[in-house]
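Batch job 17 of 40 flagged for manual review because the log was empty.
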Amino acid sequence: MKPIRVLIADGSANARRTISRVLARDPEIDVVSSCSNGQTVLLNTTETTPDVIVLEVELPELNGLQTLTELRKRDRNVPVVMFSRQTSRGSNATVESLMHGANAYVTKPVHDSELERCVAVELAAKIKQLVSDSVPTALPHQQPGTGGSANKLQSVHLTAPAEVVAIAASTGGPVALGKLLSALRSSFSVPIVIVQHMPQGFTQALAQSLTRQTGLKVREVEANSPIAASQVWLAKGGQHLVLQRHGIDTLVTAQIGHPENDCCPSADTLFRSVAEVYGTRTLAVVLTGMGCDGLAGCRAVRAAGGAVIAQDEATSIAWGMPGQVATAGLANLVLPLDQIAGEIMLRTSDRATARYLERGSS
């Protein structure tokens, strides 16, 4: 197996030398570039085509977040790990990094004496994990007539409107969720439940950020609550989000359980519970993300008579999760991100359907 090609960006010459030297000791890693500022990162990424970029928040010319934003415009797929003293659990810099497309973070030690150990153990392990996660799992054989492109896989057929929207996202998900939820009308009243793969300690900040961005009431699930108590429910990092019937009510619950597909919260766990409670009135949406989480859950949704929408490859940061669903023939539609909100409104209420169709014919 070829060594992992790593680009390092850090404003400190001492830190760059230490990180490069320690990583170079690892036979599985090849440091192909060491950059002192954000502009050099953008130039060298094109020239050296790294497998992973290690990015400091504090960079001259372009800071780490600005550099990350530009990187994602140019290369949606290269994994980025933030390595900074500012990227600690729950910090604003870490949340912003993850929301702007970083795949992971490692906190740089405050004391230089601890830097070598952190690079050799924590950073090297994270680099290897990101490369392992980014290798696409073999997609299932495509079913005849289903297709895997951004075209409609099945004609739009509206039966009973969906009474819940279940969304799954991973890499690139925070940005995609912000855009999708912002595109829904303020009058949108159908409950939305979301699994976004994020570490513990970050989902509350994501819920607050999405509330500010979208104007919708987004809440992190912490205890059993009636689903109608919020417009949007977000799974808490480290806990599964599950829907349950309780008499005539539907409860949103947080459950501590084993990871599924190495994910907790897991989209499969959420989708199965939604399909069991809502059956034919389920609408599942799979957004950008690596891996295959959501594939088994979408099978359960379709078996229950519900519908599935997958984000297309062109607008996804990573087309692992939606690509698995689309290629397996489970998606009713494969759509660009900017068309998904309209389709959600079309499929969730008769009144919204009438407004959407009226707009489309004008």
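Reviewer: the log was empty due to a logging misconfiguration, but the result itself is present. Residues 115-134 form the longest helix (20 residues). Unflagging and moving on to job 18.
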